[in-house]
Amino acid sequence: MRILIVEDEKSLADIVKKGLEEEGYAVDVAYNGEDGLFMAENEASDLILLDIMLPVIDGMTILKRIRKAGVRTPVLMLTAKDTVMDKVSGLDSGADDYLTKPFSFDELLARIRALIRRGSEVKSSIIEIGDLVIDTASHEVKRGGRLISLSAREYALLEYMAINSDKVLTRTSLTEHIYDQDFDLDSNVIDVFINRVRNKIDRDFSRRLIHTIRGAGYMLKR
Ligand code: CA
């Protein structure tokens, strides 16, 4: 899952980026509204953390513009101003949720997970596909009751495929949602990761979950 942070307080943006990366998210950062607007419209983000008070273009204007342009990415507004008016105008302008600064990192993580789930069939923090169980809060993965150890990037790939199960995912879309924009898009890397995840979750089981769709990409089948 890939998250765009639009926040001009550099120390806050950087600490949130670092924390989210430790959780396995790919993270892009825009430190002003102009870059934020451009990236919100052009990067394959799964969620946008949007500050309201920003230089060049403010967060509310960004929100209105991207919604008008048809960008449906969930937006979590970050605001220092805890006034009812701000919350109402943010939600009216197409924000999905808001968080008042200062916020706890655990609360931020819980809200991010909830917003990412909202757009999918997955309705709890536990994703179950057959005997595969993924706990998106603790990142614990089990198959047939057996604990499976995955690296942060392998976990990110599996979680993205599970949230988008039964959909064909191209190498490009997998790469875009697992790496940030600083990553040089080489789709062969995805094949390597798919094989590693396959070895861990499919190899010892008769029913395979990860399928190669010839000429298209990959699918995790329910
Ligand atoms: Ca700000």
Q: How would you portray this structure in words?
A:
The protein has 222 residues and is of the alpha/beta class. The protein is 41% helix and 21% strand. The chain contains eight helices and eleven strands. The strands form three sheets. It has a five-stranded parallel β-sheet, with helices on both faces. Helix 2 (33-42) runs parallel beside helix 3 and helix 6 (152-163) packs across helix 8 (188-201). 34% of the residues are buried.
Layout of helices and strands:
Layout: E1 2-6, H1 10-22, E2 26-30, H2 33-42, E3 47-51, H3 59-68, E4 75-79, H4 84-92, E5 97-100, H5 105-118, E6 126-129, E7 132-135, E8 140-143, E9 146-148, H6 152-163, H7 171-178, H8 188-201, E10 210-213, E11 217-220
Parallel strand pairs: 1-2, 1-3, 3-4, 4-5
Antiparallel strand pairs: 6-7, 7-8, 8-9, 10-11
Helix pairs in contact: 2-3, 6-8
The protein binds calcium ion.
CATH T-level topology of the largest domain: Rossmann fold
Encode the helix/strand succession as letters. Answer: EHEHEHEHEHEEEEHHHEE
Terminal Cα span = 20 Å
CATH superfamily heading of the largest domain: Response regulator
Poorly predicted sequence stretches spanning 5 or more consecutive residues: none
| Anisotropy-based shape | elongated
Radius of gyration: 18 Å
List keywords for this structure.
222 residues; alpha/beta; Rossmann fold; Arc Repressor Mutant, subunit A; 2 domains; five-stranded parallel sheet; four-stranded antiparallel sheet; elongated; binds calcium ion
Task: Offer a quick outline of the entry.
With 222 residues, the chain is α/β, with parallel strands linked by helices.
